[in-house]
Structures are given as C-alpha cells and as structure tokens.
Amino acid sequence: MMKKFLWSFALSAIVLAGCGKKEEPPAPAPAPVASAPAAAPVNTEEKVLNIYNWADYVPEGMIAAFEKESGIKVNYDTFETNEALHAKLVAGNSGYDIVVPGSVFAKPQIEGGLLQPLDKSKIPNLSNLDAPIMATLAAKTDPDNKHLVPWAWGFTTVGINKTKVAKALGKMPMPENAWDLVFKPEYTSKLKSCGIAYLDSPTEIIPVALHYIGKDAYSNDPADYKLATEMLAKVRKDVRIFSSTMIDDVAGGKACVAIGWSGDMNIAAARAKENKSKDEIEALLPSTGALIFFDTMAITKDAKHPNNAHAFIDFYLRAENAARMSNEMNYPTANKAGVPLVKPEIAGNKTIFVEADYFAKMIPPSSFTNEAREAMANAYNSFKKGK
Ligand code: SPD
Questions:
Q1: What share of the chain is helix, strand, coil (3-state, %, to 5)?
Q2: Ligand 1: distance of its center to the CA of 227 in Å?
Q3: Do residue 146 and residue 278 come from a single domain?
Q4: Do residues 228 and 317 both lie within one domain?
Q5: What is the pLDDT of residues 253-304, one digit of tens each?
Q6: Is 139 among the domain residues?
C-alpha cells in the first residue's frame, strides 16, 4: 500500500513537471525514496470460519486448538453422505467456507465451478503432502492440484463383529471373499439375525455391488446398475439397517456385519474394547479388493472467509495435526511429514495403513457423470424400497 502511494506520488511529480513552463529549468529529479519492507498482508476478515465435514472425522480438541491460536471462531457442522454435501453446494449460498467432498464428487464440483482455486502462497505446509498421492489426485480429479487438499483416505469394505458373526453362521465357515457376507443370500439369510447394515448412499452401495458382480465399480452405464440391483434385490429382505454413522451401530451391537468405511470400523473396534465388550470387531480385507476413497478439503466458490479457510488448511497440514487425525480417527494421512508421528499400533494396523500387496488389489476412485449419478440414485432408491 505504502509502495503504491509512493509510486503514484512520484508519477504525479513527473506529470506536474511536464506541465511546467518551457523556459523554466527542469525540476530536479526527486530524491530516491527508500522502499518500505513488504508488509505481510493483513487479514481483515471477520474472525469466523464455517466448516462442513464428515461425521466422526476430526480429532478431539483440534478445532479448539485452532480457535485458540488464531482467534477465529469455527462453526463446525457434519454431513453423512457425499450426496448431502453435493446438494448444498449445487443449491449455492451454503454458508460454508471449507467443505470436504470425496474425490468422486469433488471432480464434478470443480468442473461445475462450485469450488474456488486455492491460493497456494497462503498454504506453506502443502509441502508436507505426499507427492505421489498429489500426482494421482492431479491426474484423476484436480489438474495441477488447484483446488483440493487431502483430509484423509481410506476404503469402503466389510466390517464384522467376529463373535456374533461366528455364532450366527454356526457351522458354516467364513467365506473367502468377505463381500459374500453382505451380498450372498446363503450368508445374509443367516446374518440377518444379528443385523446387517449398509451405508445409506447410492454412490457407496452401487459401486461395491458393481465390483462384486465383476463390473467396473465406476461404470456410467445404467444397464450395469440394473444388474447390480438385481443382485441386491436377492438380499434386500435381510438388510435391516441403512446408516452412515455406523460406529455406534457396530460398536453398540445393533449390526454384526456392515458395509462401512475402514476407519469407522476400526473406531468401532476400539470403542467396543473401551466398553469392555467381549465381542471383537474387525475391518476385513476382501479377497477381491476394497474401494479406495480420498476425502479432500476445498474452499467453496462463495466462501465469505477465504483467508480464514486458507489459515485452517495450513494448520491442518502441520505434521503433528495430520498424525493426530490418523491416530484418533484411524484413517491414513496423505501427509508424508506426519507419517513418522503416527503411533506404531496405528501405522502397523494392516486395515488402516494397508500393505503394498493388498493395496495393489484395491480399486482406485474415479467419478460419475451427472446423468449416471441420477440413474444410480433411482436404481438405489428402488432397491431400498424393495421394488
Ligand atoms: N467418519 C468419517 C467417514 C468418512 C468417509 N468418507 C467416505 C467417502 C467416500 N466414499
């Protein structure tokens, strides 16, 4: 600002000199002015930040620590499905500054102009991120990593209460492919007695069902959705719970088998232990692979507090904060600098940080066209209604 003022002052002096009488000697050149050191930009935004994230995804006290350090008051709301977040963004004026879409939805949100490009100069801790993960996101979802910063990644899989499942199956052995537990009538007809739970979202269930029947999990072809729902229809009567907050359902004993997210299933396992339950809960690694997801922070196109949003993203990207997310929420971090700070029991848990052999079997995320998502939602709703 000061520099700009000095520049315009000098400019006016030259202009004024040019208007003087011809016979007068030229005005002496102005004495050089020492340029003021560049001042850090001042954040004049109101001290508020509105964040919309998945339920059960932020370590205890992390938001309070940011508020204390920055003086910014955070309003933190949660959602349970990508569809719920997407609907808010499409409607506009969500009021949220930071949102955390799965990459499957982030791609169309970027293309639809719903998210704004990041000002990377305000996020020095971007350098902590894992370069291969960022390269993957750039190639598949967000060219040049302009909009998205990973919150965490994980995978959609089958979680079980081992004790209850063993009891319900009786003499029947566990299947080789864990997806059979939720998709094959021979198993579901036995497991319905202790509770089968599915995530309540078309874009969670149809892709895993497509994968199970040997189709591309990210097919955009409605004919494939028909095949998937034909398979699903055979087990519909056995599925009791549709929920996207499964930690309580599984840890609390309402469901003995669930299609859920890896970290949530691990939290359910830890919670059952804390509650001194005799039941052992486990996230499984299906032999045919599980579906990887990336959840990503982004700033909405109409964010009212973009500077505060950048400050929070940089705070979250500190190595110690990334490690806390893994340690407490049981999801792998994409923050390379944070990985050495992850507790050995979390880093060594093969259902959180999967080993290379299994990683090779996993299905990487892609995305759907808007038309495909609509067709998928129709297919899913008919399945759910049992029609
Ligand atoms: N408790 C946090 C769960 C986050 C799940 N995100 C899944 C998104 C993609 N399918």
A1: 45, 15, 40
A2: 25
A3: no
A4: no
A5: 999 999 999 999 999 999 999 999 999 999 999 999 999 999 999 999 999 9
A6: yes
Q: Are residues 267 and 141 in the same domain?
A: no
Our answer on whether the CB atom of 179 is closer than 6 Å to any ligand 1 atom is no
Q: Is the CB of 261 under 6 A from ligand 1?
A: yes
Residue 29 resides in a domain: no
> Among 330, 328, 329, which Cα is nearest to 350's?
330
Are the C-beta atoms of residues 72 and 66 closer than 8 Å to each other? yes
Check whether residue 196 and residue 287 sit in a common domain: yes
**Rg for the chain, CA atoms, rounded:** 26
150 lines ligand 1 (CB under 6 A): no
247 CA distance to ligand 1 middle (Å): 12
Judgement on whether residues 272 and 124 belong to the same structural domain of the protein:
no
pLDDT, tens digit (0-9, with 9 covering 90-100), for 210-223 = 999 999 999 999 99
List the CATH number of the domain containing 95: 3.40.190.10
Q: How many domains does the chain have?
A: 2
Ligand 1 pocket member 65 (CB < 6 A): no
What 351-358 contacts at long range (C-beta under 8 Å, 24+ apart), as own/partner pairs, is 351/157, 351/262, 351/265, 351/266, 351/282, 351/283, 351/284, 351/285, 352/262, 352/263, 352/266, 352/326, 354/155, 354/285, 358/285, 358/289
Q: For position 43, what pLDDT does the model report?
A: 79
Nearest CA to ligand 1 atom 2: 57
Indicate whether this model's pTM tops 0.85: yes
pLDDT above 90: residue 230 = yes
Q: How far is the CA of 127 from the centre of ligand 1 (A)?
A: 24
What local confidence, expressed as pLDDT, does residue 331 receive?
98
Residues 188 and 239 in one domain: yes
Same domain? 331 vs 189: no
Instruction: From the CA of 267, give the closest atom in ligand 1.
Output: 1
Question: In a mutational test of the pocket of ligand 1, which residue from 157, 210, 249, 295 has the highest number of ligand atoms less than 8 Å from its CB?
Answer: 295
